[in-house]
Design a protein that fits this description.
Blueprint: E1 7-9, H1 10-17, H2 21-29, E2 40-42, H3 45-59, H4 63-89
Antiparallel strand pairs: 1-2
């Protein structure tokens, strides 16, 4: 992990999520993951990719389905964060 702990290497991401480096690269090729630099990713994607990897194993999903799942899970996380932020602004 980088000194500022906001990024993770492709090797660390693969290890943390139970994937191979080749599988992580394939997710990048499908557009499901967007590196911040040369094989550097946000640590925020770890939980999403980890959940997707578990679902892939449970349901024997192929890589294109896994890529779609990662995209959907990231979108759900983003929407939930936005909803919490908007909810916090409402008067009580």
């Amino acid at each position: 992990m980088s000194p500022d702990h906001d990024t993770i290497s492709i090797d660390e991401l693969a290890q943390a999520c139970g994937l191979t480096v080749a599988e992580v690269r394939e997710l990048v090729e499908y557009g499901a993951l967007r590196p911040q630099g040369e094989a550097i990713f946000s640590v925020r994607c770890v939980s999403c990719v980890r959940r997707a990897a578990r679902l892939r194993d449970d349901f024997e999903l192929e890589m294109p389905a896994l890529a779609l799942l990662v995209t959907f899970l990231e979108r759900i996380e983003t929407l939930e964060l936005e909803m919490r932020q908007l909810s916090a602004r409402l008067p009580r």
